[in-house]
Structure formats: C-alpha cells, structure tokens
Amino acid sequence: MEDATMKIVDLKATVLDDVMHNAIIVRVDTDEGISGYGEAHGLKEPILNLKRFIIGEDPTDVERVMLKIRHRGGYKPWGSAVSAVEMALWDIAGKAAGLPVYKLLGGKVRDRVRVYCDCGAGVPLEPGGSPYTPEAYAEKARRRLRLPQKFTIFKFDIGLHGKQLYSVPGGVLEAEGTYPDRGHATEVGLKAEIECVKAIKEVLGDKVGLALDCGPGQTLPAAIRLAKALEPFNVMWAEDLLQGDYSPFTDVEAYKILTQSTSTPTLTGEHIYLRYGFRDLIEKRAVSIVAPDVMDVGGIAETKFIAELADLYGVLIAPHSLGLPISFMANVHAAAAMPKNFIAFEFHMADNPWWEDIIKGVEKPLIKDGYAAIPDKPGLGFELNEKEVRKHLAEGEKYFE
Length: 401
Ligand SMILES: [Mg+2]
Hints:
Blueprint lengths: L7 E8 L7 E8 L4 E7 L3 H4 L2 H4 L7 H8 L7 H21 L3 H4 L7 E9 L13 H12 L7 E5 L14 E2 L10 E2 L1 H18 L4 E5 L6 H10 L7 E3 L12 H9 L5 E3 L7 H8 L5 E2 L9 H13 L3 E2 L7 H12 L8 E3 L11 E2 L6 E2 L2 E3 L9 E2 L1 H6 L10
Parallel strand pairs: 4-5, 4-13, 5-8, 8-9, 9-10, 10-11, 11-12
Antiparallel strand pairs: 1-2, 2-3, 4-16, 6-7, 14-17, 15-16
The site of magnesium ion has 7 residues, from loops.
C-alpha cells in the first residue's frame, strides 16, 4: 500500500544582511511541493543541524515533529532554530489543510492585532548631539507620533537599555557600558531617567501608551525606586529591570519582590526558551506582563500556550519581536488566537524602508491604524518575494543553497 502522508524532504536556511541580530529565513520542503517558512536569528548551524531529525516526518503533525527537536533547542540561537522550524511546520500544516494558521490554533478572538512601536532612545537635536537628553527623547516621540502606521503604544529605552544611564555623569555605579550589563543607579541617575520619561509623556499625552525598556541589569533596590518613581506617569510597563534581554536566567523571587513593591506594571521574558521558563514567573505572579518572543520561545503554539497559562493567573502578555515579516506573521496568527490578556506585540522596523517588501500576497501596508490585519490565506498567509530577499542576502550567502 502506498504511504499517503506528506513527508519532509529538506530544510534550508538563508541569512540576510542589514537586519538586526542576523535575520535568517528557514524553509522546510515536502514531497508534495508545499514549502513552509520560518524565521530565526543568530546562527545558521543550529538550524541546519535539525534537518536530520525531521526528514521523513509528516509536517502536518506539528507536535509530533516538535518532539523530535524541542530538546535540541535552548537559549537564543539554539531555541531560535527550533522556533523557526515550528513556524514553518504550521505554515505547511495550514497550506495542506487550506486554512490560515490561526484556525489551527483554535480560531481568532480578534479581527486585527495591535502592534506596538519600538523607539529606542531620542534623536539628537544637532549633529553629534546626545540622543539621551530629555529634549532628544521628546523629539523622537514627536516623530514617532507622525509615523503613517499610527501606533497606539510606543516603547523607549532608558536606564541600562541603550546608553541613557551611562550618559549621566555619576549616574550608575559599576556598569561599564557592555551589554548586558549590571549596575546600581544613583540619585542623579534616577532623576535623569525620570526627566527623560517626563519629556516623552509631555509629547505623547495620555491618548497613547508609553512602555519603557529599562535593563537588564538594574539592582533590585534601584529597580524598585525607579518603578515607584514611574508610578505618576501610568506607563504601560517597565521592561527587563532585573534580567531579560540576553540574560541566560531569570530571578523569579527578585521579580516578585519588585512587582509587589509598585503599581508600575513589570514585564520580562524575551530571553526565555519554552513554557517551563515562564511557569514560575506566571504562577508566582512575579511579573505583571510576560513577553515571550515567537523566535526564541519555541514558536507559535508555545507562545499561544504561555498566553493561556498567563491568563489563568491574571498575567498579561505583550510578545517581544524584532525581525522580518515572517516572524511578524507568526506573531499575528498566535496573537489572533490569544485570550483577552493580550496587549500588543512589538515592531522594531519603523526605520527600515524595505522591511515589508520581502513578502508578497498580503495586504499592505502590514500595519494600519496601529494594527496588523490577520491574513485569511492558508498557512501563515504570505509568499516570499525572492527578488527582494536576494537584494538583502548576507555577503557570500546564496538563496536557499
Ligand atoms: Mg526588551
């Protein structure tokens, strides 16, 4: 009897240039001519290493394939490889079933998905000027408000995220300007952090949300002080105050002390691989909001599961993201099916003019009135634009070879 199940026959990856964190597009091919796409960041080798474990498997049994490779993932590049393959499997499963991925996750809870805009630091008022003055932050806020995407939440870097705290003479003890770093903010450091926030709020007002990426690496007492000093500004959240981005661990007890000390919502999680890394954070209500990254946490279904678990405990979710339209679409499908604890997912490419061009067959612009539309086409709902991808390949890189 002939075997009628679809089979994976190949896994390929191609590295792009000019994109933060080495964006990598992953393609899984099948014997039925259907291919699925995913996205990773970091290194190509851990991705290609997964090939031998998935060849011959039926990609439409997504979880069964994941059981072959999930334990081969881990922190950052290793987890990112597993996450990218997971996205590609869902893309194939959706295409094979003739359904958009969100339908396979349980269907959509919302008709469009809120996206928030990463802003970084300020913009210098004159050439060679500092981007870390309150005036520079205010100017960036004015420019971000004018963006055609009409975002409703903006996130700025203060403290140890970016260089704001280092720009203040005597602002921080011990921190040396490496990333990730650790250091204790002084009184002048704290006052400078708050001056920047005040300047941003004066521009943004109270009709749009302000989130702050503050670390990682603040000391617990400085984090508590900053979070309390932020209370009058009603920010959406203070992110990664203790650990987070590029931290290979999370001190859940310290986050719990911080969160219980303040009415400013706390957030972390972009560095965490798999639901197990979120269990304590969520069950102990150690942060107000979790921020898994679909490209690091283990993929689309993993992100959706964490949203469900968080919702049981009154914890919100605002997924971290920094990538191409491929992980963007993975986020859209995951978020479409999340419970009401979803806030928004992150968009980092407001200053990248070609960002949208590498996919086609979808409604553009991808972000309108602060939201992403949810594609109704099978799978993740886009086609790769080969011509545009070729323009941005890393040096020496061939297109899926
Ligand atoms: Mg962050």
